[in-house]
Design a protein that fits this description.
single chain, 244 residues, alpha/beta, Rossmann fold, 2 domains, four-stranded antiparallel sheet, 24% strand, globular
Length: 244
């Protein structure tokens, strides 16, 4: 049985002259352990599709089922736990470290501060970002921010992970390792749904789709080459010495 099932979804944005059809009769199924990618150009409706997949936005037509039940009435209970969204912090707090930000996710599950920080370190290590633990969120580059956001999303123990453009702005050498991480998460039984505007990001997925003018078209999966993990980042003091 599909974990997430989007059935004949249609939605529009705007009103009057600005009204625009964003998704047209879109259907998509994803099972546990599948890595599914949706490719599309900017303003193709990719982000709207993810918002609908998480219950953040309701479609005007069609239905969205999670584990066989309608998602919308249960959204507040399962978003952040059974459904994890990979969202780098939009306005990071002054000086807040990556470790503390991930620990906040564990504390939402009623872990003590000490336990949350310990589990946060473990989760950061899981996504190969342990070297980022003591850096502030503002110091992270794009690739590190994605990994830290992955760690935060994993704190709820999700069955479905939703990722919007994981390689956007990421250095070329860091892109394959991030895709490899997503593949590894799916291999552990978590369904992963991601969007991308980068054709290379389709490598290694189980199924790929193209979103074109609101219509979803099927595609084929592609193999993923072997990649290396993210290198440990130098300490802040070491960076300062190099810059001095």
């Amino acid at each position: 049985m599909s974990l997430l099932s989007i059935k004949h979804v249609t939605t529009q944005h705007g009103r009057g002259r600005t009204e625009r059809l964003v998704l047209k009769d879109v259907s998509l199924d994803i099972a546990a352990g599948e890595l599914v990618a949706v490719w599309g150009l900017r303003r193709s409706g990719r982000t709207t599709l993810l918002r609908i997949a998480t219950g953040m936005e309701r479609p005007e037509e069609g239905e969205v089922l999670f584990a066989g039940q309608e998602l919308a009435p249960r959204r507040d209970k399962i978003l952040g736990s059974e459904i994890g969204c990979v969202q780098p912090p939009s306005s990071p707090g002054e000086g807040e470290s990556a470790l503390d930000w991930v620990a906040e996710g564990w504390m939402a599950g009623r872990s003590s501060l000490a336990a949350a920080r310990r589990r946060a370190r473990e989760t950061l290590a899981e996504v190969k970002a342990e070297g980022c633990a003591e850096f502030s969120l503002r110091e992270l580059d794009a690739g590190e921010a994605v990994r830290v956001a992955l760690a935060r999303a994993l704190t709820g123990g999700p069955r479905l992970l939703v990722v919007d453009e994981p390689t956007n702005g990421v250095d070329l050498m860091d892109r394959d390792p991030i895709l490899r991480l997503l593949r590894g998460i799916a291999n552990r039984g978590v369904a992963v749904l991601m969007t991308t505007g980068d054709g290379a990001a389709l490598a290694g997925v189980d199924c790929s789709f193209t979103l074109d003018h609101g219509e979803l078209l099927g595609g084929d999966a592609q193999p993923l080459a072997s990649v290396s993990p993210l290198r440990r980042r130098a300490s802040h003091s070491a960076q300062s010495r190099r810059m001095g």
